[in-house]
Amino acid sequence: MADAVGKKSLLCVPVESHKRIRRLLSEPFSMTSLSAFITKFDKLLCGRLQILEDSGKSFKVLDFSMKMTFDAMCGMLMSITEDSLLRQIEKDCTDVSNAMLSFPVMIPGTRYYKGIMARKRLMETFREIIARRRRGEESTADFLQSMLQRDSLPADQKLDDSEIMDNLLTLIIAGQTTTAAAMMWSVKFLHDNRDAQDILREEQLSLTKMKPEGASLNQEDINNMRYGLKVVKETLRMSNVLLWFPRVALNDCTIEGHEIKKGWHVNIDATCIHYDSDLFIDPLKFNPQRFDEMQKPYSFIPFGSGPRTCLGMNMAKVTMLVFLHRLTSGYTWTLDDLDTCLEKKAHIPRLRSGCPITLKSISRSMPEA
């Protein structure tokens, strides 16, 4: 994995470096940054849903959500809006993502080879963007600029260029692939569970009625999506877009009679936990209201747990909530392919069909893009 995303990625660094890098990367995930992200993502989403509605054509939710989340992350991190540059970075990030768990052999045509070559192109692109920022040719209030403004600070209060670039790549991939897959699964689960869809739509329409026509969503609106948050949680529980969490034992320990030595690699199986009938009644049923009750500790871990809990978990939640709000308050939809088979050779569970749907408008009350 380190060959693909970088040895200084938050996913790969040892515990000593992890604390420092995580602390410095936390700014774009603060409440202030998330509030700004909600409004920007809402406007971007509304514009693209309008295009799909006008076309009247079926589209794959997975493809749509992959592009939406990618463009939103690149905008937040580096203020990139040029479509040709976005599409090139997206293609290279896809190759890197595919290489992360592939067999590490540099043979042309293999996933690993394509990923390593894509990484080289991405590092050069990021290097050029950083150079332009330092020359004063570009200056935008975003994540990258906040990192570069620390240049004169002591080493423990800033990231070097390789740390910045490796973690730009990490944040883009992590912010796109898992969130997009979860958005796709939410549409599938709501299609299959009309009662939950109706309850969610009622909540979202009630929020819309309290806002001026055409107003964008804000943090207060997100906080009021109580049933929506339960839908997000239940989607994450059932979809398990992160199937397992690799960890390294820092000390010798014993768990239920099983001895684990210091330095051993341990994989935590999230799917096994989330489908445990001792923890969740009728675990195969999509039931958002199960989250009316407090869950047992460590029974719900879609973002991991402990010091390496996913840094972007709140951003993933608000992204899904904005998407579900605009989808259910503005549209009904038909699922155009009932195939439930999963995509092969994907390290994230995704429908092979991509979940194609056709939208039908309920009413229009969306902000201008």
User: What's the CATH topology name?
Assistant: Cytochrome p450
Order of helices and strands: HHHEHHHHHHHHEEEEHHEE
Structural class: mainly alpha
Uncertain regions spanning at least 5 consecutive residues? none
Helix content: 40-55%
Please tell me the overall pLDDT: 92
Characterize the overall form: globular
The top level CATH class name: Mainly Alpha
Pfam families: p450 (PF00067)
Family: Belongs to the cytochrome P450 family.
Protein name: Abscisic acid 8-hydroxylase 3-like protein
Keywords: Heme, Iron, Membrane, Metal-binding, Monooxygenase, Oxidoreductase, Transmembrane, Transmembrane helix
Question: What does this 3D model show about the protein?
Answer:
Helix content is 53%, strand content 8%. The protein is mainly alpha-helical. It has one domain (2-361): Cytochrome P450 (Cytochrome p450). The chain has a 3-stranded antiparallel β-sheet. Strands 2-5 form a two-stranded antiparallel ribbon. A two-stranded antiparallel ribbon has the order 3-4. A hairpin with a 2-residue loop joins strand 3 (253-255) and strand 4. The radius of gyration is 21 Å and the shape is globular.
